[in-house]
Amino acid sequence: MGIDRKLLELANKKEAGRACGGEDRIAKQHAKGKYTARERIEKILDAGSFEEFDLFVTHRCTDFGMENNRPLTDGVVTGYGTINGRLVYIFSQDFTIYGGSLSKAYAEKIVKVMEMAAKTGAPLIGLNDSGGARIQEGVDALAGYTDIFYRNVQYSGVIPQISLILGPCAGGAVYSPSITDFVMMVDKTSYMFLTGPKVVKQVTQEDVTVDQLGGAGIHSSKSGISHFNFENEDIAFENLKKLFSYIPQSNREKVPEVECNDPIDRRDENLNYIIPENPNKPYDMKEILISVLDDNDFFEIQKDYAKNIIIGFGRLNGASIGIIANQPKFLAGVLDNNSSMKAARFVRFCDAFNIPIVVFEDVPGFMPGTVQEYNGIIKNGAKLLYAFAEATVPRITVVTRKAYGGAYCVMNSKHLGADINLAWPTAEIAVMGPDGAVEIIYNKEIKNAEDKTAKTLELKEQYKELFANPYNAAKKGYIDDVIVPANTRMRLIKALKMLQTKKVSSPDKKHGNIPL
Question: What percent of the chain has pLDDT above 70?
């Protein structure tokens, strides 16, 4: 009878621990269009795979009457499970207990799963829905946050870290997600900011709503902090699983591979005609990406931010690759501050986790003007250059049209250590376009000409014959081959297979000093 009583006691305690903050608070959570901490875990992980840690943990605060209310779990659910059979660690903040606010004990629970993830080499998923630091705990809560931040940094590039913002995430709480590799937000229900609307009003006299200050739309389009903005939590969870399918478990593993039924030698004749005859006319680079990738499937990241560059994942012959591509459809595909930083961070993620990089290039240069210069285009452009130059994964570039000036150098050129550089016959590789070049090179001839307009047009045509093609660069070995656009898929797959055994030895150093 003794053991039966103990088993009943265990069952009752576990039931109490899984009850969240009670039915009323659960109902309020649902009324906001939000799931509870445990419902979220159930929807993300494979059925029956979740194993919980630290259900019996409670806070240790004895001030402000806190000793009279010590709910089990202390407001965060932690443990491990699987997604499509692959191990993953997870923590899910429970807004129904103390508003999801963080205590020292709560932080220790998160730290435990972080350390387990690093030890076993598995990704970490954090579900954020919290009112911030638990004020009653004072510096202990701040210490707890910092313990988490420290491990975010230590495990960066060791295991993939993914954050979902599913409610409030304010104050110091924002730093942990911002360090992680990918941030997902949900429209209308999630927000992030360092200081709330009331403080903003006090200090700057600005009237701003929560959504205007730190909503999902703002962070996915303006600040670039969020990589994804979803309509609801269900869509977020489905996309989380898809993102997860492209990335390895840790920096010790190769990229995931799936069976590929898409023919390796599949041609797309439309690619031969996709580049407009007018070099100033835009086209949609995504059409090229979708055509080339397995099953015409491209998983785009940060699609609403810095639209002049495209980043995301796809597969070639079943294996994951990272893609960076200029987008002529927006700002002619120029590089600017935001696009440079967006691409640089993605290059570094791919390199950290052994994901080959394929670049599709059509870039007329860097965005000119005081706005760009004052905001550090020199430094930010150098970030992209630095990221490519230090990357040791297989790297391939395909120049589809323009590759001008410093932007040519920066976009994974042969000179930055790219392994294979291909070009379409429509490629133009030069210091600058014909308009600017002719004005500089032939300034005197144009001035002395009787018909300046006719002379300018004649000289532009001469310049185009010299540089509006890929053969000048190919003569020097800077382009490995000029290919038929329709064959791009096959050429990329063959090149990636050839590069599977690539090894690079870097100079011995603690770490480089990227221009931040």
Answer: 100
